[in-house]
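User: I've been trying to design a sequence by hand for this structure and keep getting stuck. Would you show me what you'd pick, starting by listing the structure so we're on the same page?

Assistant: Good idea, let's start from the same input. This is the structure you sent:
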């Protein structure tokens, strides 16, 4: 299983970014995917979840209405569209899947929200 995130960067407060996670090594369309984020000294936080075919999504209360998770099973890729970003959302963002009972993570992509 390999997960590779991209799309992070520096954005001003109120701005937008779209993160991507390219997956390989497993049957992507059979597995749910999630996005998490983590800041130093804090636990990793679930941001958004999408079921294997994309019919079910869930969001952390703090991002609902501003973030959108989506997936393209033909491209083995999951996305996180983030709008109206806040400085406190500066973090490393990771995509995740649970495959055969084990958690798999990418290397993360840094999002910095600052003026």
């Amino acid at each position: 299983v390999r997960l590779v995130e991209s799309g992070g960067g520096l954005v001003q407060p109120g701005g937008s970014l779209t993160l991507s996670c390219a997956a390989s090594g497993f049957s992507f369309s059979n597995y749910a995917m999630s996005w998490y984020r983590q800041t130093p000294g804090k636990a990793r936080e679930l941001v958004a979840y999408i079921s294997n075919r994309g019919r079910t999504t869930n969001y952390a209360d703090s991002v609902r209405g501003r973030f959108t998770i989506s997936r393209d099973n033909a491209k083995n890729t999951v996305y996180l569209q983030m709008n109206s970003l806040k400085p406190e959302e500066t973090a490393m963002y990771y995509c995740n899947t649970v495959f055969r009972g084990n958690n798999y993570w990418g290397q993360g992509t840094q999002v910095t929200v600052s003026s």
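That's my pick for every position. To get oriented when you compare it with your attempt: The chain has a mean pLDDT of 97. The chain is about 0% helix and 55% strand.
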